[in-house]
Batch of 3 targets.
Target 1
Amino acid sequence: MISINKLRKEFDQGVVALDSIDLEIRDTEFVALLGPSGCGKSTTLNCIAGLLDVTSGQVMFDDADVTNKAPKDRNIGMVFQSYALYPHLKVIDNIAFPLKQKGVSKEERHKKAREMAVKLQIEHLLDRKPTQLSGGQQQRVAMCRALVKEPKILLLDEPMSNLDARLKIEIREVIKKIQQELKVTSIIVTHDQEEAMAIADKIAILDNGRIQQYDTPEMLYQYPANLFVANFMGNPPMNFIDAKLETAGEKLMFTIGESSVEVSGQLLEKLRPHTGRPVKLGVRSHQIRVGAEPAANTLPMEVQMVENLGKELLLSGDVHGCHVRVSVDDTSASGRMKALVGDSEKRVYLRFADFINVFDSETKVNLVL
Ligand SMILES: Nc1ncnc2c1ncn2[C@@H]1O[C@H](COP(=O)(O)OP(=O)(O)OP(=O)(O)O)[C@@H](O)[C@H]1O
Ligand SMILES: [Mg+2]
C-alpha cells in the first residue's frame, strides 16, 4: 500500500505546487492522477519516487516511511514525462539496463527485454539507438525498461502522450494487462479523462495542487463532488443549466428563465435546505428525454444542430441562454430532427431523468451527494 499524508511541496519564489495531498493506494491497484496542465500531477509522482524533496508531509510504502529515502531504495519502475533513455545504448540494452544493474546474465536479460518489446510492439527496433526512434517509440522503450525489472510500484508520467489515437488504445490495453499479470501497484499521470477512465481502478482529480475528488471512474462520472470534477469528466461534457431553487406553495421548483420544473424524488429533501440559492443543473446528454409538444416540467430548446453519430443523434441548442446537448437513441429520427433546426416555431421540449446533479453556483459544491 502507498499512503501519502498531508503532502506539501513548495518551489522557490513561493510556488505552492502541492497543498496537503492525501492519497491511499492499495496493493495491485491502478490509480490515475488527472488534471489540467500545472495542477501538480508530475510533482506528486516525483515526490512518491523520491526525485523531489517534500516540503512537509509523509510518503509511506506499507509500514515503511520512505519520505527521506533515495529513489534507488524504493523499488520503483518509472516512466518520465520526458523519457530519459541512454543515447549510447541500443534499444535492447536500454530496456535490459535495470536487469544488468541487478547482475542478471546477458542472455537472460536480453530474453526478458525481447519479450517485453514484443508486448509493446517495438521488437523490430531493438538494434537501433534512441536517436533513431520517433517520440512514441522512445516512450515505449522507456515503458519496457520500467516494466522489465518487475518493480513493486510502477509510476507512469504521461506515458502515451506521443502515440496516435489508435496506438494509444492498444498500448493502454497492454499496460493494463501487464499491470494485472505482474500485480504491480501503479500510478499513471494523464490529462486525458478518457485514458484515465479506461485504465484506472480509481482516479484522483487534481486542481491547483489539491485533490478535488478521489474515487472510481463510475462514481466520478455519475456523482462529481463539485463543478470542477463535473466539467472534467465525460464526453460530451455535462450540460450546465442555470436555475434558481424556489418554492411554489408546498412544492420546490427549479426556475429556469420563464420555465419551471418541479423538484421531485430523492432530490427534494436534499435540495429543500438550499431554497433561494442560484444553482447549476448538471445534466448528462443521455439524462434528457426529448418531446415534440410542450408539457408540465419540460424546458423548451431551440435546436441549432443535429449530428448523427451512428449509434445516436446528438441535438444541440439553446435552453434559456444555456447551450445544451441531448442524445437521442433513435437515429431513424434524424430527418425529423434535422427539419427542426432553426425553426423557432417547432422547438423541442426537454424532460430530465429522475436523478440529476445540482451544484451551488457560488460554492460550486454538488448539493445532492
Ligand atoms: N522546479 C520547479 N520550480 C518551480 N516551480 C515548479 C517546478 N516544477 C514545477 N513547478 C510548478 O509547480 C506546479 C505543478 O507542476 P507539475 O509539473 O506538477 O504540473 P503537471 O500537473 O504535471 O502539469 P503538466 O500536465 O503540464 O505536465 C506548476 O505551477 C509548475 O509551474
Ligand atoms: Mg507533468
Target 2
Amino acid sequence: MIDRNRRNLIAGGLAAAAVWPGMGRARAARFKAYPFSLGVASGCPLPEGVILWTRLTFPEPPPPADPFAPLEVIQRAPVDVIWDVAEDEHFTRPVRSGTVRAVQEFGHSVHVPVAGLRPGRWYFYRFRAGDAVSPVGRTRTAPAQETMADRLRFAFASCQQYEQGYYAAYQHMADADLDLVVHLGDYIYERSWGGNLVRHHGSGWPARLDEYRARHALYRSDPNLQATHARFPWLVIWDDHEVINNYGDDNAPDAPAGERFLEQRRAAYQAWYEHMPVPPHGGGDFSEFRIYGQHGFGRLLGITLLDVRQYRTPAMVGGQGAAQADANSMLGAEQERWLEETLPGARARWNVIAQPTLLSERDLEQGEGRRYSLDGWDGYRASRRHLLDSIEAARLENPLIIGGDLHAYFAADVKRDFAQPKSETVATEFVTGAISSNAPGQKSLDVALAENPHLKLASREHGYATMTLTPDGGQCDFVTIEDRKDPASPASTTYSFALTSGQPGVNRI
Ligand SMILES: [Fe+2]
C-alpha cells in the first residue's frame, strides 16, 4: 500500500514525497512544474503589517495505471512554504521570515499576516517551497495612525470579463505611481456573453468549489493582472459575478433557490478567499464570510469597504416599484449597525466609501416617467438614505464614494435629496469604467445624463481610475485604454477632476 502511494506521488505533481496524510511533517519537495504560476499578492496594509498571499498549483495527476491507486494523496499533500520579507528586492536586508503550511483544504493557498514592519514603507517579499522560488512582490505599509501623509494615491478598478478583452489596463496600472489598488468587484465572471471574444473560459458556469477555483486561477493566470498584484497591496470587495449574476443573499435569478444555492455560494466565497490577499480564514464553512471593514491610512485617508451582496434583501424581479425599494436592505441590519457605529470614529481628512456600483440615483427613462435598475441602490432607497444619514451623522470629513459595475465611467454630485436638484451636495462620487467587460450603448449614457442633473459625466471607455489625495485637496483621474481587444493598447488620462477639502462636488479640470 505504502509502495503504491509512493509510486503515485512520484508519478504526480511532486517528484519527491512531501508527506503522508496525517503522518509527520511536510518535507522539502522537488516540483515537476513551477508551483507559483498564479503569482503573489499582498493586501490589507496596516501601519506595521500586511497580508501576503500565494497559492501553489500542481499539474493534474496523470491517469492512474492502477485503477485502485489513491491519486488524491498527491493532491492532499500539505506543503510547507517559507516566506521572506526584506527592505530590498534582492533580499540582502531581510526583516521578517517564517513558514506557513499550504493545505489542500484551502486549495494550497496561503495568507500570511506579517507584523513588525515600519509604517509608510515599501517592502519586498517572496515565497519558497522545496526547490521553487516565487516571483518577488512589492508591498507598502500604511502610514502610522497619527501621521498626516503628504500624499497618497490609489487606483480603483472593476469588471474584468476575461473573454471580452485583454488586461492592457493592468499593464499600465502596474507601471503607475501608486500606494494601493482597490478592486470593487466582478473580479471573475461566471458566464460568457457577447461576440468578438478575444479568449475563452473553456468551461461553463461554475457551481462547485473546484470549478470556482479553476475560474479564479484562469483569470489570475493573466500576466498583467499578476504584475499589478505583485506591485502594490490591494483592498478587495466582491460584487455579484464572483458568485452569479444579480444574486442577493440566498437568492439568484439563474440558480436554484435555497440550500442548493447557498452551497454554491459557499464554494464561490471559499474560492474567492483562496485567491485574495485577505487575512487568514478563522474557520467555519464560508456560509458567512465577512469582507466589509474599515482601513486606515493615517490621518489623510480612511477607506470603508462595503458588502452589498451577502446580506441584501434579494432584488425585486419585474420592478414592483418604490414601495419595496423603501423596505429592502442593501447591507443587512448588522452591517448597517456596524457602519453607524464605525463611521463616527473615522477621523481621516478624506473618507472613501468603497462599494461595487453607482450610489447616486439614476433614472433610466427618457422624458416623462421614471425607471430604475432595481439591482442597484435605486432598488434599495432606504439603505441609501441610511448610508447618507450615517455619513452626515458621523460628520465624516470629505466623503468620497467610489464604485464600478456599470462598465462606464460616472462622476456625480451625491445629493441629500436627489429629487431636488438644488438640494445640498453631501459627497462626491466617482465610478470607474470596466477593465475589459462590454460597455453599454452611448444612448443609455446620454439619457442618464439628461435625466439626472446630479450626474456630471457618463462615458463608455475602458480602463481604471486613480485618486490622489493631499491634506488640502487632490485629483481623481480616469485612465482609459484605447482598445481592450488589443493586449498592448496605449492608455491616457481622459478625464480629471479636482478635489478641494471642504468642497464636495464634481469639478472637472
Ligand atoms: Fe461587471
Target 3
Amino acid sequence: MEGAVSSCIFCQIARSATSTTLLHKDDRVVAFQDINPSAFRHYLVIPIEHIPTVKDLQQRSKDFSLVSHMLNVGQNLVQRDAPHAKRYRFGFHQPPLNSVNHLHLHCFALPFIPRWKRVKYSSLGPFGGFIEADKLLERIKPLYPL
Ligand SMILES: [Zn+2]
Ligand SMILES: [Zn+2]
C-alpha cells in the first residue's frame, strides 16, 4: 500500500509535488484541470487521502460528506469558469474502466470536444461505466442523517 501511494500521480498532485496548477485546495480535496480535456471545461476533483475507486466508498457519513464536498467544489469551479455552458456533468469511472486508481470526480462544462468523447463518459447500465455523482451519492447515503 505504501508503495502504491508514493507512486500514485494523483497523491503527488495532492501534495503539490508536481507542477500541476491547483484550481482549488482545502484540507480534504484538491482540483485541477484534466491533463487531456474532453470538454470546453474539464476539471478533476480528488480527495487528498488515497482512496482507490468508487468501490472503496461505503454507505457512511464520512464517505457521503467527502463526495458531496467534491461535487460542491467541482460545481463552483466549472460554473465560475464557464457560466454560460448549456450543461454541466459530474461523475466517476467505475473499475475496470477507471484510468488512475485514485478516486477522481470528472467535472464538465459541455459540450464534449470532440463530440465522440462523450462515449467515454456514458453509463453502461449494469456493466458499470460512468456513474453520475448524484447516483453515487444516492448509493452511499447513510441510513441515518448526518
Ligand atoms: Zn493516490
Ligand atoms: Zn477518470
